[in-house]
Design brief:
about 150 residues, mainly beta, Immunoglobulin-like, four-stranded antiparallel sheet, about 15% helix, flat
Length: about 150
């Protein structure tokens, strides 16, 4: 690709100054399949994830129902039941017009989590809690921010 400028400069300015030129090259990279230790780790992870279930995961706390704008809200997630298996805890908050300011998920041990989030504006929010790709019981939650 070749670019020459200045395209938006006045005719007088172009005559008075040198014209600058720039060029750049874009190269594509080839994505390769994971090999060796990475592939075996991914296979073990896929196997563990296929045996987990969100129906045994419980979310509780006031932060699932109501909170105050500009203050931190809290709730807990308990995935310690053996039937829950191993998986990733995913939390998201969707607001009326602005995104959630911050979400912090802290593992407290034994697959129990403390979740803290902060929103700035009043309104109704949708809070999603997933264990892997499955919603935990009650999710998505409607949270009133006053």
């Amino acid at each position: 690709m070749y670019c020459a400028g200045p395209a938006k400069a006045s005719a007088a300015a172009v005559k008075a100054e040198k014209v600058e030129e720039s060029s750049f090259m874009v190269e594509t990279a080839r994505k390769q399949m994971a090999t060796g230790h990475t592939a075996s780790a991914l296979a073990r992870l896929a196997s563990a994830l296929s045996t987990s279930t969100a129906t045994s995961v419980r979310a509780s706390g006031l932060g699932l129902k109501q909170t105050f704008a500009g203050r931190s809200a809290f709730f807990q997630v308990d995935a310690s039941a053996q039937a829950a298996g191993n998986n990733m805890l995913l939390v998201g908050v969707l607001g009326p017009s602005t995104p959630c300011e911050e979400i912090l998920v802290k593992h407290m041990g034994n697959r129990q989590y403390q979740v803290t989030y902060n929103v700035r504006e009043k309104g109704q929010y949708v809070l999603v809690v997933k264990w892997g790709d499955q919603h935990v019981q009650g999710s998505p939650f409607l949270v009133d921010v006053v």
